[in-house]
């Protein structure tokens, strides 16, 4: 039998500190109003499910969740298709202006979003997209990061794979769909997870382009809810739990995979 | 001639595949950069057409004490956030790289803040750091220290934001370091221990130099994100109290959407961009000098 490592003495308290905010979020979300404001704070005596019902009743949390879901899913689908196609072209086809286009696209990765957002808002106004989900989707439908990720992936594949299919007379698109698609699955999954997380948790862009509650994502809605209910912590925490449930579930069920994706892409 | 036709087909196919993404990224990613630069030379409220302003926005920027205050706060924030995150992440990654019982659970605990949105984080920390009944004050009270204001104290708010964002980013830095540590060849560590290196010495002389690319990447990445700090401030302090957490991007937001001075906001944006570009180039140059490779 191995001696338990002394590292537990450091790692256990550390882990407790890291999960404490999330655990207390859960605890406060099932506390009564009085329990959430006593000092020192303690465990709730019972479970107040009513907080969740109140949160759902007082704010259109349901439709905010649906909005977030629609925006995230459409952006994931857009990125998977468009970035794969472009990534393949940049990795495998020599075409006029291809290198310049790729370089310019990479350059946009270095530009902070705060520079882009002011003209983007003007564009959305003239397109009539302000206060719609379209404004949240359009700029995120294809990302330079996604194209770069897919291009890097295609350059690691041996060319022979495609050449055989091409010699047999298959078109490029057919080669991509029938020969390469099965090999692309892990990279596509990485792209999907990161795109989903980013659009789900995005805040600044929704904040400036959406004002009406109908078009809010759950992050933006939650923030406005916070402004209106600063005194009712249990209800606010219940809403917060609901807003994080989807990503937390994805995280717990696909933790290993998730960690690998983040390490590969360097994104939060 | 057939060769040319094949080339032509390649150009067509290339653009056929790439065009949808390239057009979207060009329109929504590249055009706004140029446009934003143009906006910085205009007087505009972003709603009605602007008028040419020459260099007035930049003159205002140089003379604006609020801008320099915000710049100073941003630098203080970055100077704390980046080193603290790195200094915590590396030892934690080294510990999580050992084969001990329950290490999977520890890794889970450290990385779960990664998926937590800034809005949710802000709400949780506002409660934890509440001056009247928050958990942190309960801990201080338990050891006989006075209650603190944290986000509501002008002298502490920026540090509270640092603590909150370190919590949010620590898992990311740990994951990057873990990946780098797992690439350190085992035989190098064995060789150093055969040569009489203790655990600590082989960390200093083998592992630390070999993870320096990860350190370099994290330095750049955390600095870029730190200079763009906004969400965490918006959901906790709204730039206050007494402007104590009004960092550059928050100032930009205020100018664009509270004062409706879009041209000036664009000028601040360009300043942030220059700052980010300068930091990135500086650090990349420095990293190149301290880069080790295993052959």
UniProtKB/TrEMBL annotation, chain A:
Residues 65-254 form the ABC transmembrane type-1 domain. InterPro entries: MetI-like, MetI-like_sf. The keyword Phosphoprotein does not apply. Keywords: Cell membrane, Membrane, Transmembrane, Transmembrane helix, Transport. Signal peptide: none annotated. The keyword GTP-binding does not apply. Pfam families: BPD_transp_1 (PF00528). It is a multi-pass membrane protein. The chain crosses the membrane at residues 7-27, 64-88, 100-122, 134-154, 175-197, 241-259. It is found in: Cell membrane. Belongs to the binding-protein-dependent transport system permease family. This is ABC transporter permease. The lineage of its organism: Bacteria, Bacillati, Actinomycetota, Actinomycetes, Pseudonocardiales.
Automatic annotation (TrEMBL), chain B:
PANTHER family: ABC TRANSPORTER PERMEASE PROTEIN, INNER MEMBRANE ABC TRANSPORTER PERMEASE PROTEIN YCJO. This is Sugar transporter. It is found in: Cell membrane. It comes from Lentzea pudingi. The chain crosses the membrane at residues 12-38, 75-96, 108-129, 157-181, 202-224, 262-282. It is a multi-pass membrane protein. The keyword Nucleotidyltransferase does not apply. The lineage of its organism: Bacteria, Bacillati, Actinomycetota, Actinomycetes, Pseudonocardiales. Residues 71-283 form the ABC transmembrane type-1 domain. Belongs to the binding-protein-dependent transport system permease family. Keywords: Cell membrane, Membrane, Sugar transport, Transmembrane, Transmembrane helix, Transport. Its main location: membrane. PROSITE patterns: ABC_TM1 (PS50928). SUPFAM superfamilies: MetI-like (SSF161098). Signal peptide: none annotated.
């Amino acid at each position: 039998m191995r001696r338990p490592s002394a590292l537990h003495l450091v790692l256990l308290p550390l882990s407790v500190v890291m999960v404490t905010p999330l655990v207390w979020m859960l605890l406060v979300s099932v506390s009564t109003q009085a329990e959430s404001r006593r000092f020192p704070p303690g465990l709730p005596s019972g479970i107040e499910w009513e907080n969740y019902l109140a949160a759902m009743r007082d704010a259109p949390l349901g439709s905010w969740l649906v909005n977030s879901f629609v925006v995230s899913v459409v952006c994931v689908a857009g990125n998977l298709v468009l970035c794969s196609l472009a990534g393949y072209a940049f990795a495998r086809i020599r075409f006029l202006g291809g290198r310049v286009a790729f370089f310019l696209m990479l350059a946009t990765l270095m530009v902070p979003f705060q520079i882009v957002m002011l003209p983007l808002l003007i564009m959305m106004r003239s397109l009539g997209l302000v206060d719609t989900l379209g404004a949240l989707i359009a700029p995120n439908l294809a990302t330079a990061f996604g194209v770069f990720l897919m291009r890097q992936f295609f350059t690691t594949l041996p060319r022979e794979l495609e050449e055989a299919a091409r010699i047999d007379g298959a078109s490029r698109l057919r080669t991509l769909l029938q020969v390469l698609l099965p090999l692309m699955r892990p990279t596509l999954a990485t792209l999907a997870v990161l795109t989903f997380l980013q659009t789900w948790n995005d805040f600044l862009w929704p904040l400036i382009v959406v004002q009406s509650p109908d078009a809010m994502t759950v992050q933006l809605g939650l923030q406005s809810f916070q402004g209106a209910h600063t005194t009712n912590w249990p209800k606010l925490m219940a809403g917060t739990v609901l807003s994080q449930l989807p990503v937390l579930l994805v995280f717990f069920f696909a933790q290993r995979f998730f960690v690998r994706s983040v390490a590969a892409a360097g994104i939060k | 001639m057939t060769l040319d036709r094949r080339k032509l087909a390649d150009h067509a196919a290339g653009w056929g595949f790439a065009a949808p993404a390239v057009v979207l990224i060009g329109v929504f990613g590249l055009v706004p950069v140029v446009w934003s630069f143009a906006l910085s030379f205009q007087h505009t409220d972003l709603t009605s057409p602007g008028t040419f302003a020459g260099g007035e926005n930049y003159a205002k920027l140089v003379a604006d004490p609020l801008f320099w205050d915000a710049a100073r706060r941003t630098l203080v924030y970055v100077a704390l956030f980046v080193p603290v995150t790195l200094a915590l992440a590396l030892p934690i990654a080294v510990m999580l790289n050992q084969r001990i019982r329950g290490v999977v659970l520890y890794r889970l605990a450290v990385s779960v803040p990664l998926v937590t949105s800034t809005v949710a984080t802000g709400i949780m920390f506002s409660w934890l750091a509440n001056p009247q009944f928050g958990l942190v004050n309960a801990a201080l009270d338990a050891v006989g220290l006075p209650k603190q204001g944290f986000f509501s104290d002008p002298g502490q708010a920026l540090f509270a934001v640092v603590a909150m964002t370190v919590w949010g980013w620590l898992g990311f830095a740990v994951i990057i370091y873990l990946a780098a540590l797992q690439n350190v060849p085992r035989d190098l560590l064995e060789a150093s221990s055969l040569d009489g290196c203790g655990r600590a010495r082989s960390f200093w002389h083998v592992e630390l130099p070999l993870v320096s690319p990860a350190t370099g990447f994290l330095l750049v990445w955390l600095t870029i994100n730190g200079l763009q700090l906004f969400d965490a401030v918006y959901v906790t302090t709204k730039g206050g109290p007494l402007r104590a957490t009004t960092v550059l991007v928050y100032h930009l937001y205020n100018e664009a959407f509270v004062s409706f001075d879009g041209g000036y906001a664009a000028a601040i944006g360009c300043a942030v961009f220059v700052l980010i570009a300068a930091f990135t180039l500086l650090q990349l140059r420095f990293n190149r000098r301290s880069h080790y490779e295993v052959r």
